[in-house]
Design goal:
By secondary structure, the protein is of the alpha+beta class. It has 2 helices and 3 strands, in the order βββαα.
Length: 83
């Protein structure tokens, strides 16, 4: 059950179709402006992938691992939990 509690900072991911057979996976830092309102804070990173691989969920294991590592590492950093 969701208790609606959120941290003050988070990471948002979006997918932008470049129109050339590729898409960019974008990751941005956001700040909470209320329980369900987030405001852009800073660009974090991006990675470009072939649309065919994305659409069929056929990225490499390394790509999936790298995305997950990037997200968790950034969430730790924006919430002051880095060592």
């Amino acid at each position: 059950m969701d208790n609606e509690t959120r941290p003050k900072r988070a990471v948002v991911m979006s997918l932008l179709d470049e129109g050339d057979g590729r898409s960019r996976l974008l990751m941005d830092d956001v700040r909470s402006k209320g329980p369900s309102t987030w405001m852009f804070d800073a660009f974090f990173t991006q990675k470009t992938f072939d649309n065919g691989c994305l659409d069929s969920m056929a990225l490499t294991d390394d790509d999936y691992r790298d995305i997950g590592i990037a997200v968790v590492a950034r969430l730790l950093a924006v919430n002051g939990r880095t060592k």
